[in-house]
Each structure stands twice: as C-alpha cells, then as structure tokens.
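Issue: copy button drops trailing tokens. Both records pasted manually instead:
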Amino acid sequence: MMCRLYDVTRYGYQSWKTRGQSLREERDIELTADIDRVFGSVDGIYGSPKIHHALHQEGIEVGKIALLG
C-alpha cells in the first residue's frame, strides 16, 4: 500500500532499504559532529565564520554555505 501511495516499486523500495548510507550522507554526519564539537568547545559563542575558520585550521575542508544549512 505504501509503495502505491508514494508511486515506488517494491523492488525500488527494497533496493533503497538495503543500500545503506551514501558517502555524502556519511560525510555530512562526520561534518555535523565536527561542527558540534567546535561549537561546544567555545560554549556556543562562535558563528559560522569562526567555525569555518576553526575547521579549516584543523585541516577540515568545508564550504561556508554548508555551515549555514
């Protein structure tokens, strides 16, 4: 019933379900953890420009727009 509701084949659903996380999703999870770590280490007073700079200093490359989303 749900496959019909969302216009998805059962095969497509099962394929999606067993595929696991994409590399992009894994990277986003890691990046979120890094941002949370930096933000927490400064008691939440840094904004996105300072967080971007701190991550860059650690060798973590991230675009500024990723911090705003």
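Record 2 (pasted manually too):
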Amino acid sequence: MRTALLRGREHTLLGGISAIAEGPAAIAISRGGAAKTYAYRDPNEDAAAFATSPFASVVAVADGHSGHGAAEIALDRLLDAHAAAWLERTAHDLAARWVDAAVDVLVDLNTTVLNESAAERSADGARTTLSLLLARPGDDCLAYFSVGDSHIFAVDDAGAHEVAAARSPRVGFLGRPSDDRAALRRKLRAGVAQIETLRAVVLATDGLSEPGIGVADPGAAVAEIALRCARGAPDLRPLELARGIVETALASHRAQRSGDNVATAVVWIR
C-alpha cells in the first residue's frame, strides 16, 4: 500500500499549489488564490489523502473548521486504521455491507477527532467535513461516503455529475461531542455504483464552489479539465487533473478577490 497526505498547515503560501500522484491516484492542495475575507483560525484548514494498491485506490478530502486539526486527524486515522482493508485483493462483499462499514468508520473518526482535539486546547471546537471514495476497477465497484459539503464528482463521456450532494451543507461535520452512532448515520450520504463507464472520479472541498469565491458551475469545470487531461500523456492524467482543478479554483478566487482553501483528490479510471 502506498499512501500520501497533504496537510493544510504545511501549505500556507497564498497562490501556491502542492500535488502528489501515485498510479491512478493524485491529490492537490492550496491555501487559495486570494486572501480569505471571512474569520478563520488557520491559513489552510483543508487536507487531502490517498492510499493505493494494485487492486484499488482510496481518496479523501477534508475541510477543517476552527483550525486545521480535525481535518488532519481524521485523514491520519483513515489511513492508519481503515484504508488497508479496502485495498486487499478480495473485497469480501463490500457492496452489501458498505453503508454499515461507513458508519463504523465515521464513529471511529469522530471519536478520534474528539479525543485528539481535546488534548490541544487550541483545537477546542475543531470539526471537519469528510468525503471519501473507494475505486475497485477489477470488481467494477465504486463506493463512496460523505458528511458535509465537500464534493464527489463522477466523470464520464457525457460530463461530470455530483454524487452524495449535501442536503444541508452546514450540518455535516465530524467532531461534535453530541453525535452518537445514530446522529452520524443521519449525516451520512453513502452509496455503491458501477465504475465501468467512468473516466475519472474527483473529490474537492468547497474552495472550488463557494458562492462569491469558487466557480459558478463546478461540475462543468471538472468535466472540462478531465476532457483536457484525457488528451494528454496517460501516466500524467491523475496529476494534471488534480492540479487543474486547484488551478481553476485559484483563478476564480483571484478574479473575485476572495479566497478559500481548496483540496482535491482524484482517481483516473480510463
């Protein structure tokens, strides 16, 4: 298993972009293309991660609130405790048990965020969104789950459409002490789909889409970038897609003179 994690606290240059790719997976992050015009604790509170094996890839993005801590804690725990089981040769009836497995993971991540945040007084009240996608091309299986308003786009020849769209963007966070298993289940948006017709899958935090900051039509932007990347060298497509999404978000920030952190994670399918 190969893994990577981009932590917002390590990427605070305004206008800068950092990206990592391995096989079909890639992640990219930026503080933003312009200064934030709203109150915030840390310059960059987003994070992105991937884990990949010869059989599957897991990608995730997290948008921290009240500091970078919760996003980083959640993705660290995801890589350390959960990713390896999803990347094994055999899926073990993954599709049938995916929703229950997703709730189990959320319970564990929520507990970890609360416990580790409590150890740092500066992180009191830290919380995070989380969107995750598992691609298993050999099983024709795409499994995903999300809490909060970070995006998951499925890209095919017809364009990009969002899966697991947030019903109420401000409700879905990890890191709330009052959330038990039932509450986390209500926040969860999860599903399983076929992967056969897809070109790529894309996760992005709301720095791509926030009104007055990001692009007006994020799905159209993702589709256009993916189409452009499809014409390029095959081994560079994941990296170029991830970087292209962040570059597009930053251009919008500069044009509107209002910025936000942005993180993306992609898996190139074909």
